[in-house]
Design goal:
Elements lengths: L1 E9 L4 H5 L12 H13 L8 E3 L3 H11 L5 E2 L16 H4 L3 H7 L14 H21 L4 E6 L1 H11 L6 H4 L6 E9 L1 E9 L1
Parallel strand pairs: 1-4, 2-3, 2-4
Antiparallel strand pairs: 1-5, 5-6
Protein name: Alpha-ribazole phosphatase
InterPro entries: His_Pase_superF_clade-1, His_PPase_superfam, PGM_Phosphatase
Organism: Clostridium thermobutyricum
């Protein structure tokens, strides 16, 4: 059995977040407002430190890590990048609500329909599940017990929806920008996540 305590932190706000646009593969920086809001949150939040630190490798995640943890070192976990929205990237619901491909994707119950030139939910689920599994094994091999990961709202919300006991929808499980969860992850034949704290 492998287990570890993880601190998942959502990156600070970007211009796409402010405009409520789909933001997955676009490698954009934090907005000016996002930086100011994150600095304010840092004053009022006790972010946990760990020996093992990670980000998704995207600018918005790296910049968030550096604002919170300064010059602490981190490694990249590309499997925790946000969902790839393909042709829907940078667009809003209102831009897409009459697009037949978009309607098919949001109404898909199988998880197999891809965003054009992007991912399907099934592909995304498998990607982040593999990354979580590999991460927990790595942490245990290094004989550590904790790790910090700065990544994305969709990644965090989906992991909690898939592997915790909560019955909430992934969208409601996404922390606010700069917020996150302390969780315990246990792998014993399958993955189980226990939510310990939201911050």
């Amino acid at each position: 059995m492998n287990r570890a305590i993880l601190y998942f932190i959502r990156h600070g706000k970007t211009e796409f977040n402010e405009k409520r646009l789909y933001c997955g593969s676009s490698d954009i920086s934090l907005s000016s407002l996002g930086i100011e809001e994150l600095k304010e949150k840092i004053k009022n939040t006790r972010y946990k430190k760990a020996k093992l630190n990670f980000t998704s490798g995207m600018k918005r995640a790296n910049e968030t890590f550096e604002l919170i943890y300064g010059k602490d070192k981190f490694s990249i976990l590309e499997g925790f990048k946000e969902f790839d929205f393909g042709d829907f990237e940078g667009k809003s619901y209102y831009d897409l609500k009459e697009n037949k491909d978009y309607i098919a994707w949001i109404e898909d119950k199988t998880g197999k329909i891809k965003c054009p030139n992007g991912e399907s939910k099934e592909i995304f689920y498998k990607r982040i599940e593999k990354q979580l599994n590999d991460l927990i094994i790595e942490i245990n091999k290094k004989e550590e017990k904790e790790g910090v990961i700065v990544c994305h709202g969709g990644t965090i919300g989906t992991l909690l929806e898939l592997f915790s006991d909560t019955e909430d929808y992934f969208y409601n499980l996404q922390p606010e920008c700069g917020g996150g969860y302390k969780v315990e992850v246990v792998i014993d034949k399958k993955i189980y996540i226990e939510i310990l704290e939201e911050f």
